[in-house]
Amino acid sequence: MHKFILSAIIATFACAAAYAQDSIVFKNTDEVLAKVTAVTPTEVSYKRWDNLDGPVYTTNSSSIFYIKYQNGTKDVFDNVVTNDTHVNIIKPRPANAPSKVKFQSYIYAGAAFLERAGGPTLDVNFGIRIYKYAYVGIETGFHCIFDSFYDEKLTYGYIPVAVNLKGYIPTRNKTIYPYINCSLGGFFGVMDFEYFNGFYCQVGAGIDIKRFSIGIGYSGLVKVGTLNCGYVKLGIRLGKL
Hints:
CATH class of the largest domain: Mainly Beta
Structural class: mainly beta
Shape: rod-shaped
């Protein structure tokens, strides 16, 4: 009889002890009997129930399925999203991250040519580079064409003022950027073109190689008649990509 009473008392204390501990169930189905000491959205700290005087363990909340506390309540962690999951997290842009819009300029020296005439050109562009794939700027400079009309030597000079647009073609090489070019605006004549002005356009293609730029294409002036000429130019880029 005494043995039965003693066994009943031991069983009662064992059941009470079982209900006095916390149970941590991990997503890999492991279970740890513990005394939970702290819970945050990202970490859980606990002591093992079989060694309450031992160290405090800390584990990532994303590895835990749920915690069942001694009072019967539960904390479920199956919706926790951290960097350990396969969810793409959108990170805020750092304050010191490079801008996608940058100031950029070009200086070109080249030549314009007609069937029996031609001359040197100088172009200067000031603008902005957008995401490495587009450029918008203001173009100006000085173009000169030497021509002969019968026995008379003529020097046509004009100053273009236009909006310059470039579209860059993406490549795997980060130092080579092929582009197409278009400039639209007006021109002001000087020398034998004095007081002569009108519409100016330039279209062509080229390639940027590191800081150097090469371009070819067509240039046209429109004022009553039309002056059409081809061009070729070499330049240098100022400003970072």
